[in-house]
Every structure is written in structure tokens, then in C-alpha cells.
UniProtKB/TrEMBL annotation:
This is ABC transporter ATP-binding protein. It holds the Pfam family FtsX. It is found in: Cell membrane. It comes from Mesonia mobilis. PANTHER family: ABC TRANSPORTER PERMEASE YTRF, MEMBRANE COMPONENT OF TRANSPORTER-RELATED.
Length: 421
């Protein structure tokens, strides 16, 4: 029940020596400040790393063929093979839980020779033969026109979607891009769209724009690929992880291409889901370290408050003796000391939270003026759950800080207390 007299007494006790109270509470303020800042910094690092994935579907893997490492059915080890277009429906039919199975072929690559020509201009770019679903696995922003569709695929249309860096390299500033033609390895393709996207997989944002997407069927026909598939991008649905399904996918491929069931080298893969989980685990560990360090710093502040409360109890020995003589119960004395400790702890802790919030606001305001797309740090912040945890820590801290002084207070006998000077 609210008692104004009790709160007046608490405020009078805390304000009796302002300098001592402020210096004592600084330890708790600093501890909470460090805790919030460390957690926000961890979140900022996490946001930056996830931003680096460029919105990719993380429940995915990329798969390609390699030389076999075991002989099988009369065929020697070291045999090379290629995925085929027939592998795609076979995987979809035999492995449940997959959302997308996208075969891909590729021309060009890092450091390659010029493979795209338009008039007197030329450039070296990655050219992908893809299915329309690839935009769901590697999201991009269509800045003009459209992306590939299944009609393009079925009719083997020679159309292309180019990155913004391809556009700036092959076109003048005021030239119309849509409807124009570019020549890829001597074959004309009509530009139907442009895109922009963030860098992913370790690539920079600039490199992510130097790509050209054409229909898989048109690519195969134009560049004499037949039914060969260079590699595949496979994404599981929301109810499954690609890590748990990839061995089933490998089994289908091994059976169709007469590969030994125990050959672990014949199929290369990059499991994005597995790598993403490793990164997520790292951030959980960082949060644990942040809590550990923050609580240790906070503990030093709690010890300081506990020591000051012991001094306060010593200074108020006469007062406690008078109250005991007038009938105050040990519980009321204990409650008074604990309440003073909790109030001091909460006030100083909330001041630390406010200070940390102002610092984070300043950092975010500064980051808003910068291009953070290539930075591994973005939007450092904490959610309301962290604030609630901090408040819980403050209440528990206040109880711990006042527990020993409160017990010492109720041990004072009224007669002995009245005799002290």
C-alpha cells in the first residue's frame, strides 16, 4: 500500500548526502549502460551480416557435379559427369519438402574475357541461364521492365534482364535500355528488364549488378548446352531444412548417374542454411558474452550500493533504535532498508538505460547519413524484451544490495541502539 511518509523518508535518506548517493549509483548506471550497448552492438553486427546475404533464401543449397572418388558398376573412379535437365523433375518427384529446384548454366565469371557486345562497347559479365524461380531464391529489385517468366522459358525467347552496372557500362546515360539488343557470345538477346541487388556470398554490391539473366532454355539452345545443367539452386519449404533433405537429393542424383552410394566427393554443395545457422549461433554466443560482461560490471555497482547501505544503517543506528522502541517490527525495518536499496538501484539503472538510448539514437542518426549496404554493421538496437530483462536485473540487484544491510539493521537491539552516540 502506498505510504507518502515512507516515500518521504526514502527520499530524505537518499538526499542526505547527494554526492555519495550519485557516486554510488554510478556503478549501477554504468553496468546497465554497458549491458545495453553491448547487446545493441551485437544486434548491429548481426543486422550487418544478414544484410550481406542480400535477402537470399537462406534455406537453400547450391549443388554441382564433381569427379567420382569410387569405382562403381564397372566404371572407374575419377569419372566426370554432368547433371541433366531430367534430374530436375526426378528430384521434385522423389524428395518431399522442396520449394524450388532451379537448374542453372553460366558463362563468364570473375576475370573472364569480354563476352557481351553492344555497338562499339563491350564488357565481361556473368551470364546465367535460369528459371524464373531464381528471383525467389536470390531476390533482386526490378528497376525497370520485368523479370523472366515461364512463357520466355517455354518459347525459348532470347530475352535478357541486366544489372544496373551492365546498363551503365553498355549504355549512355540517356539511352533507352528496354527493347534494345545486346550480343552475348555472338547471339543477340533483347533486354526486357533491369535490376539492382545487394552483394551476397562475399561479393560486393558493385559485382552483384554485373550479371545478366536469360531463360534457361534459350541459354541451352544458343550456346549448345543440350540437356546439360551446370549446377542447381535448391530451396526447401518452411517446414523442412535443406540440410535435412540434401542427402535425399544426393541419393537421387547418384542413382541416376551410376555413382557409388557412399561416394561423398562426386557432388559438390554449399549449404547456405547450415552456414547461416553457424552465424546465428555465433550471435547467440555474443549475446551471452554481452550479458556476462554487463552483469559483472553491474555486480561491482551492486557491491558499492551494498557497502553504502551498510554505512547508512550504521549512521541511522539511533533512529532504528527509537523505531524499535516505539514498536516497529523487524519486518518493517527490513522492508524500509530494502526499499531504499531498490529505489536507488532502479533510479540509477533507468538513468543508465536512458543514457544508452541516447547514445544509440546518436549512432543510428549518424549511420542514416551513410551508405551502410557494404558495411558489416547496421541499425544497432535492443528490443523491449531486453529492457524488461534489464529492469528485472535491476530489481533483483536492488534486493541483493540491500539484503545484508537490512539483516544487520534488524539485529540491532533497541537498548544498544539508544546508547550509541
Amino acid at each position: 500500500m502506498f505510504s507518502r511518509d515512507k516515500w518521504d523518508e526514502i527520499l530524505e535518506s537518499l538526499s542526505a548526502n547527494w554526492f555519495r548517493t550519485i557516486m554510488t549509483s554510478f556503478g549501477v548506471l554504468w553496468g546497465i549502460f554497458i549491458l545495453v550497448i553491448l547487446l545493441a552492438a551485437g544486434k548491429g553486427l548481426e543486422n550487418g551480416v544478414k544484410q550481406g546475404f542480400g535477402g537470399m533464401a537462406t534455406n537453400s543449397m547450391f549443388m554441382w557435379s564433381q569427379g567420382t572418388s569410387k569405382s562403381y558398376k564397372g566404371m572407374p573412379k575419377g569419372r566426370y559427369y554432368n547433371f541433366k535437365t531430367g534430374d530436375v523433375p526426378a528430384i521434385k518427384d522423389n524428395v518431399q519438402g522442396l520449394r524450388f529446384v532451379s537448374p542453372r548454366n553460366q558463362l563468364g565469371g570473375f576475370g573472364g574475357s569480354n563476352n557481351v557486345v553492344r555497338g562499339l562497347k563491350s564488357g565481361a559479365f556473368n551470364v546465367y541461364g535460369d528459371y524464373p524461380e531464381i528471383i525467389m531464391q536470390q531476390p533482386m529489385n526490378i528497376t525497370s521492365g520485368r523479370f523472366l517468366n515461364h512463357n520466355d522459358l517455354e518459347e525459348k525467347r532470347k530475352v535478357a534482364v541486366i544489372g544496373e552496372s551492365v546498363k551503365s557500362t553498355m549504355y549512355d546515360y540517356d539511352e533507352e535500355v528496354l527493347g534494345s539488343y545486346i550480343k552475348i557470345n555472338g547471339v543477340n538477346f533483347q533486354v526486357i528488364g533491369t535490376y539492382s541487388k545487394k552483394g551476397g556470398g562475399g561479393g560486393s554490391q558493385e559485382e552483384a549488378q554485373k550479371e545478366i539473366f536469360v531463360p534457361f532454355t534459350s541459354f541451352s539452345q544458343a550456346f549448345n548446352m543440350g540437356d546439360v545443367v551446370g549446377w542447381m539452386a535448391i530451396t526447401a519449404d518452411d517446414n523442412h531444412s535443406i540440410t535435412s533433405l540434401k542427402q535425399d537429393v544426393f541419393s537421387v542424383i547418384k542413382k541416376r548417374h551410376d555413382i557409388h552410394p557412399e561416394d561423398e566427393r562426386a557432388i559438390g554443395n554449399f549449404d547456405l542454411y547450415q552456414e547461416f545457422n553457424k552465424i546465428s549461433g555465433l550471435f547467440l554466443a555474443l549475446n551471452g558474452v554481452a550479458y556476462f560482461v554487463g552483469v559483472l560490471v553491474l555486480l561491482s555497482g551492486i557491491i558499492g550500493i551494498s557497502n553504502i547501505m551498510l554505512i547508512v544503517v550504521k549512521e541511522r543506528t539511533n533512529e532504528i533504535g527509537v523505531r524499535r522502541a516505539l514498536g516497529a517490527t523487524p519486518g518493517s525495518i527490513r522492508g524500509q532498508i530494502l526499499m531504499e536499496s531498490i529505489v536507488l538501484t532502479i533510479i540509477s539503472g533507468m538513468a543508465g538505460i536512458v543514457f544508452a538510448t541516447l547514445v544509440l539514437w546518436g549512432i543510428n542518426s549518424f549511420l542514416d547519413t551513410m551508405d551502410t549496404s557494404e558495411m558489416m554493421f547496421a541499425n544497432p538496437s535492443v528490443n523491449i524484451g531486453v529492457i524488461l530483462i534489464a529492469l528485472l536485473i535491476l530489481v533483483v540487484s536492488g534486493l541483493l544490495a540491500g539484503l545484508i544491510p537490512a539483516q544487520n539493521a534488524i539485529k540491532i537491539k533497541p537498548v544498544d541502539a539508544l546508547r550509541t552516540e
